[in-house]
Amino acid sequence: MPDDVTATASLALDPGDTVVEMGCGTGANVPYLREAVGPDGRVVGVDLTRGMLRRAGERVDREGWDDVNLVRADATRPPVSGPVDAVLATFVVGMFPDPKPAIDAWVDLLGPGGRVALLNAGRSDRAVAGPLNLGFRAFVRAAAPGDRGVSPVRSLERRVAAAHDQVRTRCGPTGFEEFGVGYLGLQWGERVTGPEQ
Ligand SMILES: C[S@@+](CC[C@H](N)C(=O)[O-])C[C@H]1O[C@@H](n2cnc3c(N)ncnc32)[C@H](O)[C@@H]1O
Questions:
Q1: What is the pLDDT of residue 6?
Q2: How many domains does the chain have?
Q3: Would you tell me the crossing angle of helices 50-63 and 30-37 to the nearest 10 degrees?
């Protein structure tokens, strides 16, 4: 199953739901999210980078998806008023020096029973992945600046771990799944209380 399908499935979306994708990039997840919420649902994509949003917008226009809203904004301070049914962020939280406040803001958006899901990459500890970890390290070094004095890979993993911890802290039922020979981790959590708590 492709990673974005697995991530979407972990949100347990129902027809008519509203789902917000933080750091939606070019909109790779949007078709799967649209399919899950159906014609009465809504998909909101938030991204800070003009070029990414432009490409997402071109696709939305080309496909005639009038149930998709794209917003240029900082996802750590989401410009969306809740409650919403789900929040998805794929390969995003590793870019935040301190992801905890962002996770808090995202969980605060959820109504009771709403879910948040984070898909992220990290080094794999499976034996078969040993040589591939070198490539992963080189990729992260080139793509993601780390925290000062910390290797980019460690920095990414620290941020991702902090985000996952915060999902587990803030949510009721939670789950974690590893796939892609251990390179990909999917953390999800469900909010059990109302938006006021
Ligand atoms: C690695 S890309 C992933 C894109 C998409 N989620 C995917 O899986 O294809 C990370 C995205 O997060 C966006 N991003 C990073 N920091 C952000 C922030 N503070 N607010 C909104 N978007 C952000 C970037 O512009 C980029 O589009």
A1: 86
A2: 1
A3: 50
Residue 44 maps to a domain = yes
Strand order in the sheet with 68-72: 68-72, 42-47, 18-22, 84-90, 110-121, 184-190, 174-179
Atom of ligand 1 nearest to the CA of 25: 27
Q: Is the pTM of this model over 0.85?
A: yes
Domain that includes residue 123, residue range: 3-190
The residue to mutate among 8, 33, 47, having the most atoms of ligand 1 within 8 angstroms of its beta carbon, is 47
Residue 197 lies in a domain: no
CA 79–ligand 1 middle distance (angstroms):
15
CA distance linking residue 83 with residue 98, whole number of Å: 24
Q: So what's the pLDDT on residue 151?
A: 77
**Residue 7: CA atoms inside 13 Å, Cβ hemisphere, count?**
27
**Is residue 62 one of the residues assigned to a domain?**
yes
